[in-house]
Amino acid sequence: TQLLEQSPQFLSIQEGENLTVYCNSSSVFSSLQWYRQEPGEGPVLLVTVVTGGEVKKLKRLTFQFGDARKDSSLHITAAQPGDTGLYLCAVNSGGSNYKLTFGKGTLLTVNP
Amino acid sequence: DVKVTQSSRYLVKRTGEKVFLECVQDMDHENMFWYRQDPGLGLRLIYFSYDVKMKEKGDIPEGYSVSREKKERFSLILESASTNQTSMYLCASSLLTDTQYFGPGTRLTVL
User: Fold this and answer.
1) What pLDDT does residue B95 have?
2) Spatial contact of B34 and B76, defined as CB atoms under 8 Å apart
3) pLDDT by residue for chain B (111 residues), tens digit each?
4) Which stretches does DSSP call E strand in chain A?
5) How many C-beta atoms lie closer than 10 Å to residue A81's C-beta?
6) Residue environment code for B8-28, b if the CB has 16+ CB neighbours within 10 A, otherwise e
7) Per-residue pLDDT for A2 more than 80?
8) SS3 of B84, please?
9) Which of A1, A30, A45, A97 would best serve as a mutation to test chain B binding (most B beta carbons within 10 A)?
10) How confident is the model over A36-91, as pLDDT tens digits?
11) Of B90, B98, B104, which has the smallest distance from its Cβ to A33's Cβ?
């Protein structure tokens, strides 16, 4: 069983559309991170959410941490081709060595 | 800005060869990680290191070893490359936090 389930797995939309992707689990987490991986590059951290119910905004991206701290969503408003990439959520695997467990990601394609 | 560099972007090796993948970070981070990324399987942790000469197995260490002789450098070694080790290999580093900084990746093909 995957610790983190991301949905949808693939998403292809037109420029200007809105979208939401999800990261779900049955476990409770102290924090959750979202990374974006552009084609041919390594993942880059977008945001860390810590408090249940927390909402963080990064330009056109809105991140929400569920009230119970078991899930998170990422909403993109007016998507642009530059938003194309693999969106990964990640949580601390436990222990003191800062290992992360990643979801399998949502591959987003924004067509011009 | 943190910079994590990997020795090669693309690498082609033959079955049975010994392969070295090098990773260097310039921010004095304690933790360094090696992942492989495969379609449908996501990012999987191979090994990580939390200090010089210290290492721990990740989720899929079989067929791999690592070396960390200096704080800034973490090497992944494939003792005898096999075709099922064809993959994208990503190195990352972190300070004593959850935020990981990734290199650009090495796409390894084993023929």
Assistant:
1) 87
2) yes
3) 779 999 999 999 999 999 999 999 999 999 999 999 998 899 999 999 999 989 999 999 999 999 999 999 999 999 999 999 999 999 999 987 778 999 999 999 999
4) 5-7, 10-14, 19-24, 32-37, 44-49, 55-58, 61-65, 71-76, 85-92, 100-102, 106-111
5) 11
6) eeebebeeeeebebbbbbeee
7) no
8) helix
9) A97
10) 999 889 999 999 999 999 999 999 999 999 999 999 999 999 999 999 999 999 99
11) B98
Residues of chain A with Cβ-Cβ distance to B50 below 8 Å are 97
Q: Give me the residue from B40, B94, B104 closest to A41, CB to CB.
A: B104
Contact A92/B98, CB-based, under 8 Å? Answer: yes
> How confident is the model at residue A74, as a pLDDT?
98
Q: Does A15 touch chain B (CB under 8 A)?
A: no
CA B98 to CA B81: how far, in whole Å? 31
Is pLDDT of A1 > 70?
no
d(CA A92, CA B105): 22
Say if CB B4 and CB B21 are below 8 A apart.
no
B95 three-class SS = coil
> Is B74:B89 a contact under the CB 8 Å cutoff?
no
pLDDT at position A65 is: 95
Closest-CA distance of chain A to residue B92, Å:
9
Asked if A60 and A78 count as a contact pair (C-beta separation under 8 A), the reply is yes
A91 burial via Cβ count (<10 Å: 0-12, 13-18, 19+): buried
